Amino acid sequence: MRYFCSPYYQNSALYPIIAQLERAAGFERDDISELKLEKLEGLLATRSPIAEDIALLADLLSLGGSPRYAPLDFTPQRKKEKTFAAWLR
Asked: Which residues, including other chains, have CB under 8 Å from residue 2's CB and lie 6 or more apart?
C-alpha cells in the first residue's frame, strides 16, 4: 500500500493512515465515539490484537477516554513508536 499526504491535511502527517482505518472499520459521519470504538475492535478482532494496540489506535483516531482501556502513559516518542508498531501488526 502507498499513502500520500495532501496539503489539506498538512497538520496531520498520519492522516492517510487515519482515513484508511476509518474506512476499513466502516465509520459513519454520525457515529458516536463508543460505536466507532466497537467498529475498530471488530476490525481488529481477526488479528488477535492486544488491548494496548486497540488503545493506541483508538487514541490515533481521537476515540480515547474509554473505560475499557487503561489511559496511555508514554512519552510522546514512545507513544509514536508503539503506535507505528501497532499499525504494522
From this structure: none
- Spatial separation of the C-alpha atoms in residues 31 and 71, rounded to whole Å: 22
The 3-class secondary structure across 12-78, one letter per residue, is: CCCHHHHHHHHHHHCCCCCCCHHHHHHHHHHHHHCCCCCHHHHHHHHHHCCCCCCCCCCCCCCCHHH
Query: What domain range includes position 68?
Result: 12-88
> Could you tell me if residue 78 is inside a domain?
yes
pLDDT in tens, 21-75: 999 999 999 999 999 999 999 998 887 678 889 999 999 998 977 788 878 889 9
User: Would residue 58 count as lying in a domain?
Assistant: yes
